[in-house]
Amino acid sequence: MKNVTLKDAITIIQRAFNAMDKRLLDHGEKVSYILLKLLQASGNYSDKEILRLCTVAIFHDIGVYKVSERNRILDIDSIAPINHAIYGSLFIKYFSPVSDLNKVVLGHHFTQLEIQEKNIEDIPNEALLLGLSDYISLIHLRYNKIDNILIKDKIKDYKKENVDLYLKALKTTDFNKGLTNNSYKDELLNFFDKKYISREEIIDYIKMLTYAIDFRSEVTVKHTIVVQAMSYEIAKLMNFNDDLCIKIKISAMLHDIGKIATPIRILEKPGKLTEEEFETMKNHAIIGYKILSDLEIDDIRDIAMAHHEKLDGTGYPFGLKDNEISREARILAIADIFSALMAVRSYKNEFSKEKIIEILKNMANSNKIDYNIVQLVIENYDYIVKKVKEKTDDLIKIYENLKNEYRELLNKFL
Q1: Which of 82, 179, 311 is nearest to 169 (CA)?
Q2: Number of CB atoms found within 10 A of residue 40's CB
Q3: At 350, is the pLDDT very low, low, confident or very high (cuts 50, 70, 90)?
Q4: Any idea where the domains of the chain sit in the sequence?
Q5: At residue 219, does pLDDT exceed 80?
Q6: Looking at the whole model, is its pTM more than 0.90?
Q7: For domain 216-402, which CATH number applies: 1.10.10.410, 3.10.150.10, 1.10.3210.10, 3.40.50.300?
Q8: What is the mean pLDDT of residues 249-260?
Q9: Coil/strand/helix, residue 188
Q10: What is the pLDDT of residue 7?
Q11: CA-derived radius of gyration, the chain
Q12: Secondary structure of the chain: what % helix, strand, coil (to 5)?
């Protein structure tokens, strides 16, 4: 696996957000850039601190999963502890390498007056700086230019010293030009490109993105959790080395990334999809392929996006067949099917062990999936299920506890 920088992780996440809603095209990047310039203007932060805060800024809207929420954050006059800020802070708290900065996201829609009046504890000034950066970006999004009068009018909301930082940054930065012609991108991404991230951090960032996308659909998030664990266990049984097993695990975590653009009515439909709906669902594979392209991670992309390919060439999105489908992709395809068969849906119960084995055998005998891998799975069926349960129970509990904590925070701030 190539050395990965923070720029690579952020590019994947930004592309995913762009696929979800074009109205907020590159919004996270723009907010991060504005915050970068404010923090640099202050002179009170190290490069390491700025890097972490700008990373949080990229993800500040990661809790957005409802259309109604996206509509609200497009309103520059909406300053409230709305749902996405709470969700986003919890995602960062539980599923990111910058978990200690979760309250920066939690408080980015509060004003300093609200923080004082509601006696909200531990909301740092960086939350107000993020809120100001968010506000500036939305002004530019709405008017295609930044009116400094509008910024000065927000002194009571975001603090005079924070607005003064923006005015100071203006002396060396042309925000209007940079945000309009996208020249800000190179400066921001070059800043992120200086930070190499570990294998564990890569998994943490991908996990955060996966959970944020899938939160719209409880079925989808649990499926992803099981598929990544199952793929890993099958790879271990095939005696793949640790690096390859981790690569397969990461690919499995990303395999449904394209579903960020799939309508929730299709993801959660309680019954069989129509032909038209199925065609829409199939698009997630090619959308995922595009999100993961041109990032020097073609190996991961090709494993992740071949999970619906079939050995006889009848799969999608590319109709690959036989040796065109790697062993790694074959493992992921079988784990994807296995997980789906084990799942309980509104229109079906969990299939029995005998039924799952029968379906896998039939698909293998029909040259849809790899016969030898299926045989390995059948021979180790109970072991795989036991290991997957051990490795996914805690994750699923965190996910379910997150929903409870969200409700508690929402009640607290209402």
Answers
A1: 179
A2: 18
A3: confident
A4: 6-197, 216-402
A5: no
A6: no
A7: 1.10.3210.10
A8: 90
A9: helix
A10: 87
A11: 23
A12: 70, 0, 30
